[in-house]
Amino acid sequence: MDRIPLVPPTIQPINELVHRPLWSVMIPAYNCASFLEETLLSVLAQDLGEDQMQIEVVDDASTDADVEALVATLGKGRVSYYRQPHNVGSLRNFETCLNRSRGHLVHLLHGDDRVRPGFYTKMGGLFTAFPTIGAAACRYAYIDAWGNDRQCSDPERPDDGLLDNWLIRIAQQDRLQYVSMVVKRSVYEHLGAFYGVTYGEDWEMWVRIARCYSFAYTPEVLAEYRGRPQSISDQKMATGHALRDLRSVIAVIQNYLPDDDKQAVLRHSKSVYVRYGMYGAFNAWKDSGNTNYILGTIREAYRLYSGPSFYRILTKVLFKFILYNCALHKPKRENLNTEPFYLSDTKTTE
């Protein structure tokens, strides 16, 4: 079985005669045991009960801890556990999550992300208020590896409701994260699962859904997406492989759009992701000192878009690179003051 399917994997329907919960909270996990406790506790704190909510960890053969024991300790029998017989990769693990889900609404919650109080009540309410939608999303916060807030996503609308002109807006650039998305299982049954790439596969899925279904949205910040250097996303961004995947996704998305909108969306997407990739590589270089991160990304950025935006952004990034290098190698002046120095002695005008 290929780790990266070339077409959307099939999600088998469930016999409607079988009792089904409203929710399936499916938690794909791989070597994230140090964060999994926070993830599980954030769900269990708003557990709606077995009759209304399936909670299951789907472990892609982790090697960092005894995940089954961790789930048993925290879940106390409330959280199911399934372990892949061998490591199958993120896309196949998502496929397993979807096929093992039994609820009408599916939340794919990565094992290092978190939900805030009220997530399931609020998101379920959107499906009640707008019964014809295929998916719903909320605003989300970015958190670092230690769980500290860094920033929040921009709101897509000022209040609860349906997202207008959503196919074009989501096709221009990814505006969502897995943790912020809830999708009807019937939609996955209709359209299939994630495929093709391991960076941007979610973006392609949200556009695929938007082509066929409407989305509801709440501007409440109810989910937390964790950025960390060990994640697949951050590793692929650092090496430039993310831009290679995004080039493929952008080409696929073109097939979902009306002919009159294709060129404008294409220019917008390429410009956005050249900037995103180049600055991401610069930050990865700052954190690691590995110059190959910038060089590899420059190559992939040029392949993605060799228009004016590429050269403007390249100039800015190289200028930042030179300035930062100069600051690193600037000789330190000898401190002739023999008295001890304390942070409390300094003042700032900010």
UniProtKB/TrEMBL annotation:
Keywords: Transferase
Highest taxon of source: Bacteria
Annotated GO MF terms: hexosyltransferase activity
Domain Glycosyltransferase 2-like: 24-155
Record-linked InterPro entries: Glyco_trans_2-like, Nucleotide-diphossugar_trans
Any Pfam family: Glycos_transf_2
Cytoplasm is among the record's keywords: no
Coiled coil: none
Keyword match Lipid metabolism: no
PANTHER family for this protein: GLYCOSYLTRANSFERASE, UDP-GLCNAC:BETAGAL BETA-1,3-N-ACETYLGLUCOSAMINYLTRANSFERASE-LIKE PROTEIN 1
Name assigned to this protein: Glycosyl transferase family 2
Native organism taxonomy: Bacteria, Pseudomonadati, Bacteroidota, Cytophagia, Cytophagales
